[in-house]
Amino acid sequence: MKLKEKIFCKLDGARGxxxxxxxxxxxxxxxxxxxxxxxxxxxxxxxxIAAAPNRGYSLAEENDKITVSGVQKFLSGGEYQxxxxxxxxxxxxxxxxxxxxxxxxxxxxxxxxxxAGRGRFGRPFYSPKGAGLYIGILLRPDFSATxxxxxxxxxxxxxxxxxxxxxxxxxxxxxxxxxFLRGRKVCGILTEASFSVESGGIERAVVxxxxxxxxxxxxxxxxxxxxxVFEGVECPAETRAKIAAKLLERFRYYIEGIPRRxxxxxxxxxxxxxxxxxxxxxxxxxxxxxxxxxxxxxxxKVKLDDGSEKLLSGGEVSIKVQ
Length: 322
Prior knowledge:
By secondary structure, the chain is α+β, with helices and mostly antiparallel strands. The protein has helices at 3-12, 21-28, 32-44, 68-72, 91-100, 149-164, 239-256, 264-270, and strands spanning 49-52, 56-59, 81-85, 107-111, 132-139, 171-174, 178-181, 184-195, 202-212, 277-282, 285-294, 300-304, 309-312, 318-321. The protein is elongated and about 80 Å long.
């Protein structure tokens, strides 16, 4: 760990408290000038660090840049290989490259900004700097290819619980993978997997999750359909780190519980499409019907207008609630 990272961890663990340059230099076995340079480097990266004569250095309470140590301090267990970058094209693509070079399961990539974030069917995902949590998670699961969809549904439930841990509103899920808050979309989830021809199982899966946290000026096409966790109110410091930690822990719980479908009851309870009239789109297919249920395989049971019933797979179609 570099000196500036050690100093940041020290200041972050006692926000608002001041440490003199002499104290820090003695603790880390360096000169006071080295401490000063490290502080300047942290300030240049955007951290708000007060430096007062005769008092020393302190990390201001309002700091909200995501850091590895900032997320780790809210984790209660489990090993994760976390990396944080200021900007990237896509955390999902970053992890796919890391996976190709042997990165282990539960490698995690977090970005302050994505310049090429995407959702299902290649749709762009708006990822402005500092306004959301853009996180990618690498899995190396040992279950069958037919259970791939359960990765996404597990992530959706984990996202709901993570958001609810910091706000009083309840989240809902639009089949298959969109998380809604106060009637509008607050999160998108995309899972991409590669399969082993020999075993027929999943070789690796990368999950990209984008959560709108702070209120921001959405593009015109998103204004009426998107929202943020903290809409119209201030987002407390360290909230994104708290959400990231909670998300990782709950997602891990549901992934490890896939054989027993641990996610299912919460996923179904949070669904807002059951009982709703929907429009079904798949290629040239465009039909309407009423959603009857979601089964344990996460197939959507729909009664079409012609009286027939159809089971829909999330990988094949999209629906629009009418």
